């Protein structure tokens, strides 16, 4: 089987829109959570979010394009452009365009567009709906627009599995390259659902934190956690077959070696308390990588800061790793980025790759109060320098969708 490596990355997040700024903030435990100032929160309990207020789409597209694209597409296009620049050279000169795929997930798609056009429909009638309404809001359009802009004509689609969407995208891209269907792929995820309407929906199902303190809002594995923090942005990775990447002199961040995917078959939002589904997912990723559980050095946890998720994920890790679970490093970087929903897995995959490259395990920021049911090594006292070789990145989505990617430190 062919080896698959990461040769370019792009990020648009509340903790940085350039890779160096983003990684510096993650390493130093700086979060991007603040009190919401983009809509009125006086009549809802949601008070904080991780808002990407520094993003300027005009750096990446013409003004006339903005009315045709939802913010989730703008994030994805911008992150993809950065990733392609980061990977060096021109991929179209290195590969047959039908051998370069674009697989980009989104959990929700164009929520701001849906809301704006529905309001227009109510106030002005059906004839005033924009001709760009449908293409702007459908979730697959980020992948479609990246393909149109780049000319890449390989496999092109959008996994939609809620918070696991972009981990499934990474896994599918990895397998397509490893198994010979593609030579390279632009992959990842994007999300832009920070609206009052969406926040109210998540709030009413008791998924979001009620904290109004940004420093104590996203606190995975902490006993005082009470819900996740909504976030927005995109993470895009360029994956390539190793020999092709080496031939064109590409730099390499890390290698992807395993992918696991399972379903809980249990509940539309709650995780199965037995943790069987995610445990099998972790196990399948490890098996796909051809390693044993005791070779895993680090886990970038799904770690949402909700009560049921953090307990279930902890149990799943114990089921798979046994006594080794207490020895590895584990952290949730959602403590800094917030929960980026369909973009979460891709951004966390980028973090995991950088952790392997630099030998730095990022922290779980803001953690204070231990929980007896969450008793693993969650790296709560700042980043740790460590020689790590294999790492898992987990994503668990509403509907019982589980996806895990196994990354490896690149060694020629």
Automatic annotation (TrEMBL):
Catalytic residue positions:
163
Q: Which UniProt keywords apply?
A: Acyltransferase, Fatty acid biosynthesis, Fatty acid metabolism, Lipid biosynthesis, Lipid metabolism, Transferase
Q: Top enzyme class of this protein? A: transferase
Tell me where in this chain the Ketosynthase family 3 (KS3) domain is found. Answer: 1-409
The keyword Cytoplasm belongs to this UniProt entry's keyword annotation:
no
| Listed GO CC annotations | cytosol
Give the top-rank taxon of the lineage listed in the UniProt record for this protein.
Bacteria
Q: In which pathway does it act?
A: Lipid metabolism; fatty acid biosynthesis
What's its catalytic activity? (9Z)-hexadecenoyl-[ACP] + malonyl-[ACP] + H(+) = 3-oxo-(11Z)-octadecenoyl-[ACP] + holo-[ACP] + CO2; a fatty acyl-[ACP] + malonyl-[ACP] + H(+) = a 3-oxoacyl-[ACP] + holo-[ACP] + CO2
Give EC number(s), comma-separated.
Answer: 2.3.1.179
Spell out the family assignment given in the record's similarity comment. Answer: Belongs to the thiolase-like superfamily. Beta-ketoacyl-ACP synthases family.
Q: What is the name of this protein? A: 3-oxoacyl-[acyl-carrier-protein] synthase 2
Please give the organism.
[Clostridium] methylpentosum DSM 5476
Gene that encodes the chain? fabF
């Amino acid at each position: 089987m062919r080896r698959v490596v990461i040769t370019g990355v792009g990020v648009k997040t509340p903790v940085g829109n350039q890779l160096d700024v983003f990684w510096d903030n993650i390493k130093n435990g700086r979060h991007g959570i603040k009190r919401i100032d983009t809509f009125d929160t006086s009549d809802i309990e949601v008070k904080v979010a991780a808002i990407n207020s520094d993003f300027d789409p005009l750096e990446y597209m013409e003004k006339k394009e903005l009315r045709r694209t939802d913010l989730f597409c703008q994030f994805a296009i911008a992150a993809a452009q950065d990733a392609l620049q980061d990977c060096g050279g021109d991929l179209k000169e290195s590969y047959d365009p039908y051998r370069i795929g674009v697989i980009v997930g989104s959990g929700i798609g164009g929520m701001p567009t849906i809301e704006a056009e529905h309001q227009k429909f109510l106030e002005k009638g059906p004839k005033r709906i924009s001709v760009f309404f449908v293409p702007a809001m459908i979730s697959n359009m980020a992948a479609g627009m990246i393909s149109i802009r780049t000319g890449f004509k390989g496999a092109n689609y959008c996994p939609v599995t809620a918070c696991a969407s972009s981990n499934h995208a990474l896994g599918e891209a990895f397998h397509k390259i490893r198994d010979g269907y593609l030579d390279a792929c632009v992959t990842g995820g994007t999300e832009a659902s920070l609206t009052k309407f969406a926040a109210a929906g998540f709030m009413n199902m008791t998924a979001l934190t009620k904290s109004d303190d940004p420093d104590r809002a996203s606190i995975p594995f902490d006993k005082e956690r009470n819900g996740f923090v909504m976030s927005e942005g995109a993470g895009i990775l360029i994956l390539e077959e190793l020999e092709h990447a080496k031939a064109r002199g590409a730099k390499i961040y890390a290698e992807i070696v395993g992918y696991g995917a399972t379903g809980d078959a249990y509940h539309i939002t709650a995780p199965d308390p037995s943790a069987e589904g995610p445990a099998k997912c972790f196990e399948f990723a490890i098996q796909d990588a051809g390693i044993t559980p005791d070779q895993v050095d680090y886990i970038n946890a799904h770690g949402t800061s909700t009560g049921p998720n953090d307990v279930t994920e902890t149990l799943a890790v114990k089921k798979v790793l046994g006594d080794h679970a207490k020895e590895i490093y584990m952290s949730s970087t959602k403590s800094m980025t917030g929960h980026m929903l369909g973009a979460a897995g891709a951004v966390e995959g980028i973090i995991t790759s950088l952790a392997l490259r630099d030998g730095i395990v990022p922290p779980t920021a803001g953690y204070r109060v231990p929980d007896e049911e969450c008793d693993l090594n969650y790296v709560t006292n700042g980043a740790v320098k460590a020689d790590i070789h294999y790492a898992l990145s987990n994503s668990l989505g509403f509907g019982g969708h589980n996806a895990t990617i196994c990354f490896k430190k690149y060694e020629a």
